[in-house]
Design goal:
By secondary structure, the chain is of the alpha+beta class. It is built from seven helices and six strands.
């Protein structure tokens, strides 16, 4: 658990950096529309995909160097809802967001453990987090996408089937 004062200092610095480049207003994290509850986190609206590209391409590494993690929580009609938490560890960010299985079969700890094991075998960068979702990109091309597909379907079959028409669609995404 991070010291609350240190967490606040990290968030203040990261919010100032983001606000220098993007027209955003920060709000406490909330549980609505798939966002998240976290007393240490905050959300902000990025008004366009161009703004999101600035955030992820130009500011992400600097935000992480300040000890924070930034991610998309939900697409919106007018841009994207993004989140910010006071950690530079993407797996700790999942814990702070409290991502859990909406069906109650997997806890946050289960999800973090599974993601860490997947990352050990296939490095990934988490780009989207919410109370019921994790989204990411593999850092390197997959040498065996079939085995990764099987791991995803095995861990979260209802989620995989809910997001993709069939396993071939999931494989195409990998």
């Amino acid at each position: 658990m991070i010291n609350p004062r240190l967490a606040q200092d990290r968030l203040t610095q990261a919010k100032a950096l983001i606000a220098e480049r993007l027209p955003v207003a920060f709000e406490p994290a909330f549980d609505g529309g798939g966002a998240f509850d976290s007393p240490q986190g905050c959300v902000f609206h990025v008004p366009s995909l161009d703004g999101y590209e600035v955030l992820m391409d130009e500011l992400f590494a600097e935000v992480v160097s300040l000890g924070c993690y930034v991610f998309m929580t939900e697409p919106e009609e007018a841009g994207l809802l993004c989140g910010l938490v006071p950690t530079n560890d993407q797996f700790e960010a999942v814990r702070l967001v409290g991502t859990a299985d909406p069906n109650g079969d997997r806890t946050t700890a289960d999800i973090v453990d599974w993601l860490r094991r997947l990352h050990d075998d296939h490095p990934l960068s988490l780009t989207g987090l919410s109370s019921d979702r994790v989204q990411g990109l593999f850092v390197e091309p997959l040498t065996d996408p079939d085995s990764v597909r099987e791991r995803i379907v095995s861990f979260a079959p209802e989620t995989a089937h809910g997001l993709f028409e069939d396993e071939d669609d999931l494989l195409a995404m990998l």
